Each structure stands twice: as structure tokens, then as C-alpha cells.
Amino acid sequence: MGKYHSVVMPSPRLLIGRRSIQGAYYMLTTVVAGRESLFVDDTTVDCVVEALRCSDREHRSRTLAWVVMPDHVHWLMQLGNGNISRCVQAFKSRSSRAVNLHRGSEGSIWQRGFYDHCIRSDQSLLTQANYLIENPVRSGLATKAGEYPYCWTRWPSATE
After folding, report:
1. Which of 13, 45, 58, 79 is the most exposed place for a label (fewest CB within 10 A)?
2. Taking the domains of the chain in order of start, what are their residue ranges?
3. Nearest to 157 by CA among 113, 112, 136, 127
4. How confident is the prediction along the chain (160 residues), in pLDDT tens digits per residue?
5. At what angle do helices 42-57 and 84-103 cross, to 10 degrees?
6. What global pTM score does this model have?
7. CB 95 within 8 A of CB 109
């Protein structure tokens, strides 16, 4: 196949019921192509984090929490301007360009599609933030919440 990789199409089930509601809160998950452990160094993770921050600066999102795992990203955010698909596409495009520049590679680093869950209550927001921050513990990358270097939340108590 050379430098081109086969692309796995996202499941149409991911699109069922997807609605973009500006101001709504979403828990998003997007996965690295081939589940490659790509995000294992500070510079590569910084490329992803800067893409999240750029989304906020462009008012596409308001980030509440994130975790960059070796082969996927969880992002808890409030949707700003535009729709959820365009917001995620802009994030993936910007982060792919930055990671490729850092690695001297080209092409998308992400699988097509993403998983989203609309959050409907304040309690669910905190529950999702805790789930996100505890993901590295469940994966064996940390022994306690808040220890993993590649995560952040607006709620300091979520990391204690």
C-alpha cells in the first residue's frame, strides 16, 4: 500500500441521533488511525492540546476537560459556533497538520468519524469529567487521578 493506509469507515450508528446544539455540552472521543500509540511524548501531545485551544479561541468550543491517551482523545466541551462535525473536523485537521510537521509525515492521523455524547445535566458534566480524568488509571498509565500528565479539567476537585 505504500504511504497510503486503508481507512476504516465509521459506523453509520455513530450518526444516529447526532444533533448539533450550540451551547450544549458534549463528551467526544476520537481515535488515532490503526490505534497507533502516537501521543507518548510532550511535543506530539502539545500539538493536540494546541488544536483544542485553537478551537476555543475560534469560538467553536469551550473546553471543560480533556485527556490525550496514547491512541485516542477524550474531549469534554461546550459547542460554540457551527456544528459538532465541523468543530471536530477542524480540530482533527489542525492537529494532524501539527503532528505531521513534528514527525515529518503526512496525511490524517485520525480514524474517520468520532463518538459524541450530549450531556444534559450539571451532575453529568462532573461525572463525565471524572470519567475522563480517571481514564489513564483504568488504562494502567497512572495510579491515581490527576497523576497522568496529559489531562486537564476546569474542576480541580476532579483530580484529587
Report:
1. 13
2. 19-155
3. 127
4. 333 333 334 444 444 445 778 899 999 999 999 999 999 999 999 999 999 999 999 999 999 999 999 999 999 999 999 999 999 999 999 999 999 999 999 988 999 999 999 998 888 899 999 999 999 999 999 999 989 999 999 987 655 5
5. 150
6. 0.85
7. yes
